Amino acid sequence: MKNNTFKIPVSILLSAIACFAIGLYGALPWWSFMVTNFLIALAIPQKPWVSFLTGALGVGAIWAGLATGIDMANNHLLSTKVANILPLHGSYVLLILITGIVGFLLGGMSSLTASYLRKA
Amino acid sequence: MRLLPFLASAIITVSLVSLFNTQLPVEGSKTPKLGYFLSPQQGFWKNAEKVNTNFDAHVLANNLKGKVDVYMDDRLVPHIYAEHDEDAYFVQGYLHAQFRLWQMDFQTRVASGRLSEIAGADKLSIDKFFRRLGMVYGAEQTEKMINETNPVMKATVDAYTAGVNAYLKQLSPENLPFEYKLMNYQPEEWTAKKTYLFLMFMSYDLTGRSASADLQLTNTRDYLGYDLFDQLYTNQQDSLDPIIPRGTEFASATIHPKAPMNADFAYLHKKDSTAMVANATEAPEAPDKNNGSNNWAVSGSKTKSGRPILCSDPHLGLNLPSLWYEVQITTPTHSTYGASFPGSPAVIIGFNDSLAWGVTNAGRDVLDYYELKFKDSTQNEYWYNGAWKATTKRTEVIKVKDSADVVEEIAMTHWGPAMYDAHYQNPQSKGRNLAVKWTAHEASTGVETFYKLNRAKNTEDYLSAISLWKCPGQNFVMATKTGDIAIKQQGTFVARWDRQGDFIMPGDDSSYAWQGLIPIDENPFIKNPERGFVSSANQKSVDATYPYYLGTAASFPLYRGISVNKQLAAMSNITAEDMQALQTNNYNVFAEMARPALMKFVQMESLSPAAKLMVNKMNQWDLYNHPSSEGITIFKVIWDSVENAVWGDELAGSPIPLTKPEAYVLVEKMLKDSNFSVADDINTTNKVETLKEQVLVGIEKATLKLSELEKDNKLSWAAFKATRVLHLTKTNALSRLNLPIGGGVNIINATSENHGPSWRMVVHLTDEIEAYGLYPGGQSGNPGSPYYDSFVDTWAAGKYYRLLFLPKEKLKANEHTKWHIQFSKA
User: Fold this and answer.
1) Is the dihedral of CA B168, B171, B173, B177 positive or negative?
2) Contact flag B41-A73 (C-beta cutoff 8 Å)
3) What is the ipTM of this complex?
């Protein structure tokens, strides 16, 4: 893959698909997407910050997207309760945002590390 | 050189993952593992159930003998139709697990002293309490007896257990109930012993108050001296309206319990000798004082249809998930509907196609303490009848999260386990060595009582079913389609002499032992009485002509019974709607008696203007505890304040909290004795306060509090009382708070802050049974389900659901039937 314009969307997409697929196996650790992100970033060489962003966006989008879908089908019943257990004043929007950010951050860091490893 | 950034990035990444994979300590509790918890494919999001979930399913299981069809109605109540009885219990276990797994697991962990295992060392004192009280010991006795002598019950409980475990087996990690994810632990296999532990917990909840009350009463007596104690904690209740109407003749006693010769000296007057020890730990909250209930049945002579109507509403702690789970169980041998306990097979309070039954707590004292003198710190011998007697040792290993196991070596005596000793004390036990003797330690076939009630066809079947019941003693009410009504107080009861077991008894003297258990035929029982109804509301079951002592009067609430009986006596042409209105009735019969008694002592001219205003409002109140009523709030605050003014000084000097005298004591004193000595404030030496002065003080103090409440807009009864249905972990976000509901202590609608009618049921025994009911919760234990709290608002509003109790084909075609779960052999 030489064309950088393709590399970015492809790695975001790969990262998202892999995150979703490995997440289907409930017996695996919750952070298994970090392994898939790591491997993807190893396979697709990009600048470190680009690697971070593509990995982060892939996982962040899956986490925030799934959470949003689940939450809508649930009429915010559980998210409102959880957002009162966590100090979020009952805001399901904040809870979804935080879910997305956690995915974003962990996904990105894993890709970043892989990208540095390639160049180390 | 990119090695440095790589290492930095790797370290940050690993640290982040560990951070999000750790339970972080926050203000005395711990967060979930946040990364896991927030993961939309594994964490809590998986528990956010679609509001339009389709519950249809086909379950294959190899333990089944035949086919089972379950139809779920629109309230998520399962109607189980099985070809074999055991299959029905298998499916009941499966459904309990599907909808209530965490709760079943959690409650039996509490009962067996295993909270530390999931919550850490903070819970050790609670775990030790339940272990040392003999909860596990009792469950083991029952398990052993059922396994050895009762193949039908063994098969029933085993089928139930297999059902729970069949659900567990197919449960994938991402679908674990919400609370496991929140607290980060795993469910474990169900066992028959857990069912017996759950039933032990009910025994504790309904008779375990003595475990703290006996200590408190002993300390109160030691502090006040017996004579003053006997005045303030009198066992005389002038206004008692017993369960068995006054004047009913009892069978003559076959046991004549006698107080030991030295009781006055060695038991009643015993002086406080031991000092408090340093290593005192906190005891768990004692079971709620108001754990009680109403039940009654009216005969056809009093109803519009000419058929009996039975009502039952057990008053227990209000929790989410609820203690109750509605179910219909239909097999070729029987068809039953009612409230079941997640954790136990069969229906606990309900009806079948021939009769209905309900229970209230008997309140009888079945738990006593005996003070031990050990020879030395090995606790291998204790002094008994002038010689050293050997103990045996029972080892209880308590696992503690993130910490080493704690091993309890409990000395077992012929009385029972040595609950309090040098290794375990709380402020009330005051350094004593105490053995506990409790009827719940005996093996019990309690499950069989319900098994047989589920199948009972007539009064004889009902009597035979309840004859097996031992602990906790209950008032079993019954009505049949053929027109019988009856009530019997049943359980293993001790033939006590007056005040035996109210206080700690000497453990070195056999004359303080229980002198016998009351034969079942001598337990209070009445069938088809002339007055056309039977009822119970936890009051004393019998008047003073009954030959045995029941236990201290504080265990027997007085006023609900008076209310129920007065209303039932006045009613005729009764319908099911009338009975619903009675169950949710808010009339305050206590205030009806207490208000005029209090007013005898109020000198209006001496009151401040603000207090006068409050007293006037109180007097204008219509005596109903309606949610919007301000009069009841004013009455309650004033009454409590007057009680404090009268009793407070007598009790305040004690270093450990003492029990307050019961409300009826002051009312009855006020009604017949206008200058009793306790009114004097002992803190003033130069004058003798009269009751009038104390009432004045009480009202002025109350007025200050009431003005505050008025400012905060909390003068209405619902706002003041703030009734809540609490999640079992007491997490507010998972609870329902500030429910707009009336009622209260002493009211038929016995809804106080966190306690009240936990399953309201009205059964009209017409040819096709007409039944209504609900509990303050929902069929699903999942906080992420719309069925989690779906009955709460209806319950608070005092409304009912019509219960669908139908044969299979009719139910299948019913408009309320929504889903079908098939169970078949794998």
Assistant:
1) negative
2) no
3) 0.97
